Amino acid sequence: MAEAYIVAAARTAGGRRAGRLSGWHPADLAGEVLKALVARCDADPALVDDVILGCVGQLGEQSTNVARNAVLAAGFPESVPATTVDRQCGSSQQALHFAVQAVLSGTQDVVIAGGVESMSRVPMGMAQWLPEKTGYGQYISPAIQRRYPGVVFSQFDGAEAIARKYGLDKEQLDSFALESHRKAAAATLEGRFEAEIVPIHVTLEDGSQVWHKQDEGIRFDATLEGIAGVKLLTEGGRISAASASQICDGASGVMVVNERGLKALGVEPLARIQHISVLGHDPVVMLEAPIPATQRALQRSGMSLADIDLYEVNEAFAPVPMAWLQATGADPARLNVNGGAIALGHPLGGTGTKLITTLLHSLRREGKRYGLQTVCEGGGLANVTIIERL
Is 142 exposed, middle or buried (0-12, 13-18, 19+ CB in 10 A)? Predict the structure, then answer.
């Protein structure tokens, strides 16, 4: 039976909006991760059959197939192809799934999957509002408007709807956000992220040069009072910027191979891919899809949550993982044990393989076996990946 393995996984440390990574062109930033992945396997980049990168804001510096541009920026041979995919916040997780499908089919043996997003240089939502401002229309077509009359598709409204549906009040959301920062701060101070981070050379405002190797968004001095004082995103709502994911610059990636790929590279696998799936759900509430997607993934894989040692559920907004915990009955102690996007940032197209990288390194460090990851995605979608540490 064919198998798909991860042999390398790496990410940059997150950069805040207009922060340390904002001076890096996204193609070059992704290129640094590509170089790190082949270096960690001591591999000839010519052996890479394809590079698949997720990216949400595919315009400007991230346009014209940013994955191919990252391959060229990394100095890989021109023979190495690349393509860019968009499944919104799960784009790089979907890139991983495409890579897994490729090596399982035997059509390719060594594939790099990853993602990049410079939210400083290509602002979130730019792909939507720029066409409208230039007269080229919007992505919501007349047929969609007829199917969902009067609906404004909004992730913020969706997050508020989830909070109301699952009875999550502002105090609970704020407390969850505080714990995200506390867990991320502890993980950083204990050096848990060091093995997964690719240091990036940056020049600071004063002209000094440093290596960026610590997630920039973590608030080591976060307090419940400070979080509670942040302005709400919608009037009368429950969610503030403090209980939502941080705008973030970053890149991440994993190298996926089959048995032939293992032999060609001469390396040992770090993990086996146990399951991949994706599910569509309500596009209006939008962010609830990880719940049914997880339930279906467990059913198809013949596993239960009791079999899973660690979970990564993206903290796009605090209600998403909190509702997931409530609906699935999962153990909170196994969820986002190093903090999540509320503290560490959510670089959109780069988040999927960022979380897989952290999940894999966490399993290895703690001697655990199975990890599950799911990400809510625009349009009411969710990918689920289950990995087994080897």
Answer: exposed
Hey, what long-range contacts does 15-19 have (CB within 8 A, 24 or more apart)? Answer: 15/120, 15/212, 15/216, 15/248, 15/249, 15/250, 15/345, 16/216, 16/217, 16/246, 16/247, 16/248, 16/249, 16/345, 17/119, 17/120, 17/246, 17/247, 17/248, 17/249, 18/120, 19/120, 19/216, 19/249
282, two tokens: 């309500």
Q: How many residues does the chain have?
A: 390
Model pLDDT, residue 133: 80
What whole-number distance in Å separates Cα of residue 261 and Cα of residue 259? 5
Token pair for residue 162?
A: 């989830």
**What is the C-alpha separation between 245 and 345, in angstroms, rounded?**
6
**Which positions are catalytic?**
89, 346, 376
Q: Give the predicted TM-score (pTM) of the model.
A: 0.97
**Residue 150: count of CB within 10 angstroms of its CB:** 5
Output the CA angle 74-76-79, nearest 5 degrees.
140
Instruction: Check: CB of residue 85 under 8 Å from CB of residue 52.
Output: yes
Report pLDDT for 204.
87
288 close to 281: Cβ distance less than 8 angstroms: yes
In this structure, how many other beta carbons lie within 10 angstroms of the beta carbon of residue 44?
A: 13
DSSP 259-274: HHHHHHHT---SEEEE
> Quick one: which H or E segment has residue 252?
strand 248-257
**Among the ranges given (201-205, 285-289, 340-344, 357-361), the one the predictor scored with the smallest mean pLDDT:** 201-205
Question: Which pLDDT belongs to residue 148?
Answer: 97
Q: Are 14 and 95 in contact (CB under 8 A)?
A: no
Residue 272 dihedral angles phi and psi, to the nearest 5°: -110, 140
Residues 298/291, Cβ–Cβ less than 8 Å: no
In the 8-state DSSP scheme, what is residue 142? H
- Residue of 65, 101, 68 whose CA lies nearest to 82: 68
